[in-house]
Design brief:
Layout: E1 2-5, H1 21-33, E2 37-41, E3 48-52, E4 60-64, H2 70-79, E5 83-88, E6 103-106, H3 112-115, E7 123-126, H4 131-144, E8 149-152, H5 156-166, E9 177-178, H6 190-205
Parallel strand pairs: 4-5, 4-7, 5-6, 7-8, 8-9
Antiparallel strand pairs: 1-3, 2-3
Helix pairs in contact: 2-6
Length: 222
């Protein structure tokens, strides 16, 4: 948004518009910093004042598993204005009407990288309740190297079993995985657990401190 300029019209411009070099440099810096910035340079007739606004894309959450308890996770994320993608290999679960506002994909866990552009995902939660599928989802996410946040539903004992099954591959996830996923808010119901999961991702995205949940995740989670 150019407020004062001797050689450019006052008004609002997209970053891909032909702009003075000073504004182009500030555009690039705003993108690099992920933050808006003000520009005030030059003097007299050459003075330019502008505001470069950085508009971040909404967080994109990938849910691996479309079981009933994935519904409140998708709904809560959607209510925050996040993009949501859901993938599952079971046709009975992959029904778009169950996940309004979400991108729903039917496919084998082995096709995860082909079905979903993982580079555009900020976070993923693995919650298929199917051990072999979770192994493959985690392997695909490990090999992809993205997203930087990978949540794993279930108790610590299940995470240990998955770690043993994956072997050295799990090392590629060691700095990214959170499991049991979610904040420790005493959640027991699917809705409460969904709140704890989305809250933890929200805190992580904002760079705020958080702690992993200590959930028993009993019958409601299978």
């Amino acid at each position: 948004m150019v407020h004062e300029s001797g050689d450019s019209g006052i008004g609002t411009y997209h970053a891909d518009t032909s702009l003075p070099s000073a504004l182009v440099a500030d555009d690039r810096q705003a993108l690099a910093d992920g933050a808006s910035r003000s520009l005030d340079c030059g003097t007299g007739a050459q003075r330019m004042r502008a505001f470069v606004q950085f508009l971040a894309p909404p967080p994109h959450l990938l849910i691996c598993g479309a079981t009933p308890d994935a519904l409140p996770v998708a709904s809560t994320a959607n209510a925050l204005g996040w993009r949501v993608s859901v993938i599952d290999h079971r046709p009975a679960y992959v029904v778009a009407a169950r996940f309004p506002g979400a991108e729903v994909h039917l496919g084998s866990p082995r096709l995860l990288r082909a079905k979903v552009d993982l580079v555009r995902c900020h976070a993923a939660v693995v919650m298929s309740h199917h051990f072999k599928s979770d192994v493959v989802y985690l392997r695909e996410l490990a090999e992809a190297g993205v997203p930087a946040y990978v949540g794993l539903l279930g108790p610590r004992a299940r995470r240990s079993r998955l770690t043993s099954e994956l072997g050295p591959v799990m090392e590629k996830l060691s700095s990214r995985i959170r499991g049991p996923v979610g904040l420790d808010i005493g959640a027991q119901t699917p809705e409460g657990i969904a709140l704890s999961i989305v809250a933890q991702i929200h805190a992580w995205l904002a760079g705020r401190p958080y702690s992993e949940a200590v959930l028993t995740q009993r019958s409601v989670l299978g």
